[in-house]
Amino acid sequence: MNYRTVMILLAAGLALGGCQSNKTTQKQQAVAQWNAARAGVMGGLARNQFESGNLDKCRKSLDEALRLEPTNASLHVLAAKLELEQGRLEFAARELTTAAALDAKNAEVDYLQGVIQQRWRKLDAALLCYQQAALKNPTELAYPLAAGEMLVSLGRTEEALGLLRTQLPFFDHSAPLRDATAQLLGQMGRHAEAADLLREAMILSPQDDAIRARLGLELYFAQRFSEAADNLARVIDTEPYCKRADLLAALAECQMRQNHPRQARALLETALNLDGSSAGLWLASAKCAMQLDDPRRCELSLQKAMALDDANPDASVLLGYLRLKQTRYDEALAAFERANQLAPSDSVSLCMIGFVLEKMQRSQEALRCYAQALKIKPGDELATRLMASVNLRD
Fold first, then answer.
1. Alpha carbon distance 130, 167 (integer Å)
2. Which of 19, 174, 301, 374: CA 20 to 30 A from 115?
3. Which of 132, 126, 80 lies closest to 106 in space, CA to CA?
């Protein structure tokens, strides 16, 4: 066989080998594409089963999908969710580690890692995970909300408020973000600001009774009683808010402030049927009875309130008012003195001690009480007016 013949045969062999190799590669690609397609179908089925709560079937579908396409990061994320749902935190963490290695840009991986750290009570680590998730996907509101929750849990409420407020321009149409920010403001005692944000949230989500209930309470705490009453009256007609004693009591207080004590009494009776062990409700009932000039019911309600909480200075103050109205000055003085012992920094009880002392013709002692009240609260209107009236009479 000559050299030319050998070269021709060698070239033909290489060509045949190349064709065979190409056929093998094409077949592998086709199998991979088919497996990816089947994995996509099984993964979609697993997600539907997970969302509907059918966890056993979800696991079977997910196992099949992962067998077909083990490098699919989203399938490992779903596997982590399934493990989380079943309380298997270690297994969930393992799945997320795999998902992170396959797709380092997946923000949901960081978020779910934060959930695991939070359940392990590693709050600083959870916060870092939520912050990383928010950086990777700034369009997902759940991530900064979770970071804000962690900041609050770590006692960094001002930082949490600052974080949520920076998100408001980016989520301009988000009622939940305004609701969450308002709840933080309410916890900090900034009720007027909270009410303003909740009003915006109501515009964005007008059918959300939970937001309306919080709006009513924040308006009540901000002493905007008319607006509070409007919102509270609307929400207590619906389930489950008609069974919320705190909402009924707040609405009753609004009615009393607007000089509608009879409507307030009906509301308080309903609230007490729901929670008869609340000293605050019995005290509100006593105030309402006082406004209705019903001393017997006022006294009975006060007895209930003080039996449930004998260290409440407001109950002693109200008892003092009742005794003062009954011209039982010795008992009124004792009640106001008790209130002052329970709350020494409250100027009202001192003023009322002085007022009773005046009624008992003890003006010099009364003046000392008013002076002490002004020392506690300089410029106090009640103390100033009472002191001036004593000096004028003298």
1. 14
2. 174
3. 132
Whole-model pTM? Answer: 0.81
Rounded Cα gap, residues 159 and 165, in angstroms: 10
How far is Cα 329 from Cα 361, in angstroms, rounded to an integer? Answer: 11
Contacts of 64 by beta carbon, 8 Å cutoff, 6+ apart = 42
DSSP, collapsed to helix, strand or coil, labels residue 37 as helix
Which residues make Cβ contacts (< 8 Å) with residue 328, sequence separation at least 6? none
How many CA atoms lie within 13 Å of 255's alpha carbon, on the beta-carbon side? Answer: 23
Dist CA 346 CA 369 (whole Å): 12
CB-based contacts of 141: which residues, under 8 Å, 6+ apart? 167, 171, 174, 176, 177
Tokens found for residue 220 = 């009540």
Retrieve residue 194's tokens. Answer: 């909270």
Instruction: Calculate the dihedral angle through the C-alpha atoms of 290, 296, 299, 300, rounding to the nearest 10 degrees.
Output: -120
Q: How many other C-beta atoms are found inside a 10 Å radius of the C-beta of residue 324?
A: 19
Which two structure tokens, joined as six digits, stand for 57?
């079937």
Q: Percent helix, strand and coil across the chain, each rounded to 5? A: 80, 0, 20
- Residue 113 and residue 393: Cα distance in Å, rounded? 74
Mean pLDDT of 54-81: 91
Token pair belonging to 393: 């009479």
Check if the beta carbon of residue 341 is closer than 8 Å to that of residue 314: no
Specify the range with the lowest mean pLDDT, choosing from 5-14, 56-65, 112-121, 335-344. 5-14
For 289, counting Cβ atoms within 10 Å of its Cβ (0-12 exposed, 13-18 middle, 19+ buried), the class is buried
Give the Cα separation of 156 and 389 in Å (integer).
49
Q: Is residue 320 classed exposed, middle or buried when 0-12, 13-18 and 19+ CB atoms within 10 A define those classes?
A: buried
Alpha helices in 52-88 (DSSP H): 55-68, 73-85
Structure tokens at 205: 């989500």
| Cα–Cα distance measured from residue 62 to residue 243, given in angstroms and rounded to the nearest whole number | 43
Please report, rounded to a whole number, the percentage of residues in the chain having pLDDT higher than 90: 82
